[in-house]
Write a structure and sequence with these properties.
- This protein is mostly beta strands and 81 residues long.
- It has one domain.
- The protein contains no helices and seven strands.
- Strand 5 and strand 6 form a beta hairpin.
């Protein structure tokens, strides 16, 4: 079963320097999620596209072409840490 984003759940991603980003999904549609990231007050709630691969859904909360192009994956839910 492929992992999908669920509203109200928190997800995490690690940066190259081992920093952990935590993101919360507020709403979702079939193609987008509304996400906010802890520790970044200037990035309030952003609507981002949902991408798919063989593991499930993923998204780029800071944008795909940013230096901070971290990826949050639906399979990496915070309660699974």
């Amino acid at each position: 079963m492929k992992a999908t984003f669920e509203p109200g759940k928190r997800y995490y991603a690690r940066s190259i320097c081992d920093y952990v980003f935590r993101a919360e999904i507020h709403r979702r549609t079939a193609k987008t999620v509304v996400v906010s990231v802890d520790h970044y007050p200037d990035v309030k709630q952003k609507r981002r596209k949902i991408h798919h691969n063989d593991e499930g859904e993923f998204s780029y909360p800071f944008g795909q072409y940013s230096m901070w192009a971290e990826v949050i994956r639906a399979k990496k839910r915070e309660d699974n840490l």
